[in-house]
UniProtKB/TrEMBL annotation:
Signal peptide: none annotated. This is CaiB/BaiF CoA transferase family protein. InterPro entries: CoA-transferase_III_domain (IPR050483), CoA-Trfase_fam_III (IPR003673), CoA-Trfase_III_dom3_sf (IPR044855), CoA-Trfase_III_dom_1_sf (IPR023606). PANTHER family: SUCCINATE--HYDROXYMETHYLGLUTARATE COA-TRANSFERASE. It comes from the Bacteria. Keywords: Transferase. Pfam families: CoA_transf_3 (PF02515). GO terms for molecular function: transferase activity. It comes from Virgibacillus byunsanensis. Gene3D superfamilies: Crotonobetainyl-coa:carnitine coa-transferase, domain 1 (3.40.50.10540), formyl-coa transferase, domain 3 (3.30.1540.10).
Length: 404
C-alpha cells in the first residue's frame, strides 16, 4: 500500500457500516487493514442487498483496500490468533455493543497488556457512559434520538430520516481522525491509548447550531423541508419539468435573483426588502417565485441563474450524478478490478493529497480471501493451518483453492 499511513497495521473486527467505513478511511490512507470476520457469514453487510454477483453493495462500498481473514473468536485457538495479530499491530478497531469486546477477551484492558503501544478504537451507538450505552446502533434510530429526524422532513409535519447513513459514516470520520491523532501522540510520547466515538455523539454534534438557536431563543426548531430557517428564498421550486434548488442568503443574491426573474420591483417591496422580511413572508415570496419558475424548463432556468450568479442546481437523481461531467472531472468514481464483478467503480475518499496520493489498490476481499497468506506471515506452518481449517477455527474463501 501507498499513502501517508503506509506501515501502519490495523486489526479490524468491525461489521455493518460504521466500523468498516472507519477502517476503509485508514486503508485508503495507506494502512494495512486486516479484516477479521466470523465463519460462514462474515461481515453482515456482505448480504445487505441489492446483491451484485453475490456481493452486497453496502459491503462493496466500504471494504476496499483490506485483507480478509476468517477466525472463530468463540474458540481458544481463535483468541490466540487474535492476540498473535495484535502483538505487532498499531491499531485495533471494534464496534460491538458496550461490554461485548471485554466479554470476548479483546477489550482495551486485555489488548493493551499484549501491546502497550496499541491504539484501541471503540465505535459504539451511544458511547461508553450513560443509561443508553448498552443499546444497539442503528443509524435511523440514533437520528431520531439526537433530534435530526425532529428537524428533518416537510413543513406539514411529515417526518423523514436523512437518506444516507450520516451517523454511521460521520462517526467513522471522527473515529479515523481520533486514531490519526492518537498515532501522532504516540510518535511524541511512545504511548498507546483508547479512542472512543459514537453515533449519538456525532448526531448531537451535527445538530449543534440548532441547539444553540434553541438556547438563544427558547423556540423549538421546526421542520423546514428544503427551506432554511434563517434565509429566504432558500429551497426547492418546481419548474415546467424538473425541480430546482436555489439558495439566497443575502440582499445581493436576492437582487441577482430578481434580475434573472425580471422582477426587480421585488427588491424594493417592503415584504422582501431584507432577509428578515423575506423570512417573515416566506410563503408569499415562494409562491411568487414558483409561479415564474413554472414558465420555463429547469435546464433553461439553471443556465440563466448561473449566468446571473445565483446559487442553484437541478435536483439530480443518483443515476444523473454517476453520469455527471463534474463527477467525471473530479475522478470521484474509481475503476476497481474485482474477481467476480466486471466494471466495478467505487467512490474515492472526497479529499486529495498532493504529495502522498490516495489509491484504491485492492478490491473488497472475498470472505477469507487472505486467511492463508496472513497466517503464513505470522510463521504459522501449513500443517497447523490445515488443522485449524478442519476444526473450523479459520476459513478460506470458497472461491480460492488452498494449496500447501
Amino acid at each position: 500500500m501507498t499513502g501517508p499511513l503506509k506501515g501502519i497495521r490495523v486489526i479490524d473486527i468491525t461489521t455493518n457500516i460504521s466500523g468498516p467505513s472507519l477502517t476503509m478511511i485508514l486503508a485508503d490512507l495507506g494502512a494495512e487493514v486486516i479484516k477479521i470476520e466470523r465463519p460462514n457469514t462474515g461481515d453482515d453487510s456482505r448480504m445487505m442487498g441489492p446483491l451484485w454477483e453475490g456481493e452486497g453493495v453496502y459491503y462493496l462500498h466500504i471494504n476496499r483496500n483490506k485483507r480478509s481473514i476468517v477466525i472463530d473468536l468463540r474458540t481458544s485457538e481463535g483468541k490466540d490468533l487474535i492476540y498473535d495479530l495484535i502483538k505487532d499491530a498499531d491499531v485495533f478497531v471494534e464496534n460491538f455493543r458496550y461490554g461485548k469486546a471485554s466479554k470476548l477477551g479483546i477489550g482495551y484492558e486485555d489488548l493493551k497488556e499484549v501491546n502497550k503501544g496499541l491504539i484501541y478504537c471503540s465505535l459504539s451507538a451511544y458511547g461508553q457512559e450513560g443509561e443508553k450505552r448498552h443499546k444497539p446502533g442503528y443509524d435511523a434510530i440514533v437520528q431520531a434520538d439526537t433530534g435530526i429526524m425532529g428537524i428533518n422532513g416537510s413543513e406539514d409535519g411529515e417526518v423523514a430520516r436523512a437518506g444516507v447513513s450520516i451517523l454511521d459514516q460521520g462517526s467513522a470520520m471522527w473515529g479515523a481522525l481520533g486514531i490519526v491523532s492518537a498515532l501522532y501522540h504516540r510518535v511524541q510520547s511512545g504511548k498507546g491509548q483508547k479512542v472512543e466515538t459514537s453515533l449519538y455523539e456525532t448526531g448531537v454534534f451535527w445538530t449543534g447550531y440548532h441547539m444553540l438557536s434553541y438556547m438563544a431563543t427558547g423556540i423549538e426548531p421546526k421542520k423546514m423541508g428544503t427551506n432554511h430557517a434563517s434565509f429566504a428564498p432558500y429551497g426547492a421550486f418546481a419548474t415546467a419539468d424538473d425541480s430546482i434548488m436555489i439558495g439566497i442568503s443575502n440582499n445581493s443574491l436576492f437582487a441577482k435573483l430578481c434580475k434573472v426573474l425580471s422582477k426587480e420591483e421585488w427588491i424594493e417591496d417592503d415584504r422582501f426588502r431584507t432577509n428578515l422580511n423575506r423570512v417573515e413572508n416566506r410563503t408569499v415570496l415562494n409562491d411568487c417565485i414558483e409561479s415564474v419558475f413554472k414558465t420555463k424548463s429547469a435546464s433553461v432556468w439553471i443556465h440563466e441563474l448561473e449566468e446571473g450568479g445565483v446559487p442553484s442546481s437541478i435536483i439530480q437523481k443518483v443515476s444523473s450524478v454517476i453520469k455527471s461531467a463534474q463527477t467525471e472531472s473530479t475522478k470521484m468514481l474509481t475503476p476497481v478490478n474485482h474477481p467476480k464483478i466486471k466494471g466495478l467503480n467505487l467512490p474515492r475518499l472526497p479529499f486529495q493529497l498532493s504529495d502522498s496520493p490516495l489509491e484504491i489498490q485492492k478490491s473488497p476481499p472475498l470472505l477469507g480471501e487472505d486467511t492463508i497468506s496472513i497466517l503464513r506471515e505470522k510463521d504459522i506452518d501449513d500443517e497447523t493451518i490445515s488443522e485449524l481449517i478442519e476444526k473450523g477455527v479459520i476459513q478460506v474463501s470458497d472461491q480460492l483453492e488452498y494449496k500447501k
